[in-house]
User: Fold these one by one.
Assistant:
Number 1:
Amino acid sequence: MKRIAQFFVLILFAMFLFTTPAKADEDGTTVYFYNVLGWKEVYVYSWTEGSNAPELTPMEAMEKKNWYQFTFAPEMGKEIDFVIYNGEWGDTNQTRDIKIKNGKDMYYYATKELVDNGNGNVADVREFKKKNALTADYKEYKKELAAAEANKKSVKIYFRNDDGWKKVYIWAWKENGSNIFEGKFPGKKMKKYNDEWYVCTFESDMAVQCIFSNGNTKKNKQTGDSEKIMPGGTYWITLAGGDKVEANSDGLGAGFKVAINRAPQPGWPEGKQLTPEEIESSKEAAKISNMDSGRKKNGIGAWIPFIIGIVVIIGISIAVNMNHKKNNTLA
């Protein structure tokens, strides 16, 4: 009899386990956000697949300093997209898109790293790995930030304005896809060094690539993507003889091809200074070099006017000879 009673108890316990929904399903999914960027207000902007009416709701400030929370109702389902932001859009005012993961509670914090969200640059987010994120006192992010800052090195770039732009802008991004400068393309205006050269200095903890442009959205002129530049050095960048770079698969990156120099030539910034006579000589050499590169680039096209001239002279000579023979025959 005792065994039968134990058997029924086990059955009831199993039925309780399989019929009682998980806490996440009962109470919804809670997102916890650590406000490391010091926003005055924190909101959640959410939407679901097929929904044209995103919801904007303030996050609830928690007793623990800088922590905020928001619970998505269970009827919203487990597939929810959302961003966290401070009431303004773009840059470090909002996070990238985040997706609910199987109805499980999540712990996030924003970073100062900018990523392309499809409509511009926004702050990247990291997820606390530890389950006790609320009591972690932000140590994980502090360690990550300290490591990144320790690895940051200065990058100094000189750009020679070979195409004569009125202004020069630089747009740079890290190899992980995050952008160096806040805002949108064309990026940061470079400082004029002299009549030819412009300069910009920034920091990075990994390799970067750059695009240079005149900053004119209506009559834009720009370079193609540069090769990767390692932090901790100075670089002198020039246009590579007027050659062009084709657009990539995304239709971007088309423009003048650039040459990256890791040491200055005489007359360049931080290089050996030239005398006035040497400057004039270098200008003449540059003209000759440009003419030679033009001939090489154009190939037979550069000889077409010369060939046409020879053909015209030969034609005139033949016509004169024929006319002379005709006159002799008539005589």
Number 2:
Amino acid sequence: MPHKHNADRRHRIPRTRYKVMNWSAYEAGLHQRGSLTIWFSDEAVAAWQAPPRTTPGGQARSSDLAIETALIMRTVFHQPLRQTEGLVGSLLALMGLDLPVPDHSTLSRRSRTLTVAPQAASGPVRLLVDSTGVKLSGPGEWLVEKHGTQRRRAWRKLHLGVDAATGTIVASTLTSKEVDDAAELGRLLGQIDGPLAAIIADGAYDQDRVYDGVAEHSLEAAVVVPPRSTAVLSASAETDPTQRDRHIQVIAELGRMGWQRISSYNARAGAEGTMSRYKRIIGDTLRSHSRPAQEVETRIAVNVLNRMLDLGRLESARAAG
């Protein structure tokens, strides 16, 4: 959308400069991201051991919170499961705690059934929705280039819903690459208990089921999705125009750039920034092999990103001149 306009002349347009207003606090938050005590919390230690089992079967040694903490450490410090086992064991030893250390087999097995709750959103949410591809584990780039590969590298599609006001990821799903973006919106909305103020998404969501799904969740919510270039008005546009009809009418009157400005569509850049942050901090490859474990892996990664954001948010203002 915006980057395509005046593409042949954009090199003459100076880039907007911003000044960081809270650098000291933000830098302290960046330091805290690497602190072991941030991720290995007192709450996790207090609830480390699994409660007594009341049903037939073997007694688990570690609670779900302990497993989740170990998997968080794996995500933050990019360690395989065996090294994660060693990292957790060394931390417990340094803290002088006589607690069981989940072994790598236990982490692998229980990661398939672990329940990880998404972060709750507060107030009417302006939801930015987008998706990106994440690769599955496979031959490394060097091996593929050197020796070739007999099959294409498979990948999954990660769908995210981002709170436009805070940048927090409040909904996420993982699907196969064939799943249409608009078809997954319902599952994202199902993770948001509060009302919606607006949904902002790209042209892939220009479908009737998107408007219907948003209206079913929050009747008054706005749907800010650019209609395709061949879009036409509905039969009731003259007497009872839909949101999509109004988008088409404004574009016809002001052009797409004008519509983007008055509809706040440009806020969708926040979703693209979140995708970039996910791949730079977490990575673009899933480590788990089973589908349930991959879904848990992405939910934990989302919670890690949200926690990092809570430690310090960058505040900036447009620089003069």
Number 3:
Amino acid sequence: MTAGIRQRVMEFSPSWAAAPAPSEDRPPRPALMVATAVSLGAALGQYGVSGWNMRHLLFTAGGFALLAAFASRLLPPGTWRAAHGLPATVLLRGLGSGVFFTLEAYVPLLLATERDAPPMVIDLAFTGAAVAWAGSSLVQGRLLEHCPRHRLVVAGALVQAVAVALAVAGTLPSTPAYTAASAMAVAAVGMGMYAPSLTVLSLTHSPPGCQGYASSAMQTTQNLGQMMVLGVSSALFNACLGAGSTDAVGYGAAFGLLLAPCALATVLATRTGCA
């Protein structure tokens, strides 16, 4: 979870003190204390969403407060409002990663606990996702190299939305377990188009000598996106169970929530394109 934050810290600040003022053409260097606060906020948030009582709610509130206060200092200015160029590119990396890794966390859990799927089905879901991601990346890099990258981002987000729909359908007892398992492979196809295209766009938007800044920001927002999207989905899942809903309803709600970042990424993808 903190790999991207540690990478950014090593790259930009070797001490606890705030870094010297940067030149105009270089991004600001955050202090190590900022990265520590973000890591602590992520940890508190992850623990907080694991339950549904006052203690967990307090941990969740504290974690998200730290993230709200400090996370923006690790990212390009304008990231949270999806400003055109690098900020929007960085934000979309977090949204896409959040959707995929939430599916990767909940689909196997659904298959094992609610659908009583055999281990082979779960194994095929993970293997299929790995192969699908690699194959999709190969296709977009070799056969779609002349397609504008922001359009591939749109395509990837739409494919992820299809995967979310499959996951929701997989919660229904009338559908076979393979329906939910296929959601991981379909989502991986989307990520194979989505993630490499955003990486290329981030480097395109980076001024000379600042490519490392862009790469570390992408890694940071990927980790934050995973934590935040998975955290909100987990909170909704636990809220449904706490209200007396069945597990299937909780899974359906957690999956359905993922349509929001998919839709947001589709709408904002044009802001990642080159002017």
Number 4:
Amino acid sequence: MARSERFACTPSHRRQLYNLPMTHVFGLTGGIGTGKSTVARHFAARGVPLVDADQLAREVVTKGTPGLLAIASEFGDWVLTAEGELDREAVAAHVFAHPEARARLNQLTHPLVRALSVQRVQEFASLGHPLVCYDVPLLFESKLADVLRPIVVVSAPLEVQLSRAMARDGASREAVLARIESQLPLADKVSQADFVIDNSGELTETLARADQVLAALCERLGVDPGRYPTPRSP
């Protein structure tokens, strides 16, 4: 499946996430190569539970799952590797080039991802966590803004995005640029954010800003910031 597959938020999904009076779910998003995962790991290190939409999308199509069987039935056995797992590269290339195929794939996987996301959030809520971070690469594109406020956007200049993604994925500049341009412009995400973390500088600066944002989230949502102590340096 294509990395960062989208899933739309239905009214039922919104009600299920909001029906958690002691738990606030906030959204974390950004663009390719902005460093969103770095911020997500830092929030997790501070003790904020993390729900990762990309990870959920992988889980619902693992070998032998109803999700993978549905994809193979819809598209054919070419979507499977010799070991019976999803051939992610082949499927990603196919749906990137064929929007109608992407729509069909989303129709199969989105309900599964939605159900699993609600399950994970409810599990954290049952443990008494007042905050949950929902890491969704395509949050705005998936119409999730209403259900995931406040929203944190991690930003970086285009050239920084390109260099990071090229180094990380071993992809060409053209390939990375095409992926970036297929998403909502980062400037649009920043304009709709409640909080922005600029990740164009040193890592220490980014993490310091992430700490400021976490403190602001706690203040806005009435959560004791003492629940999230700063990790000790090794």
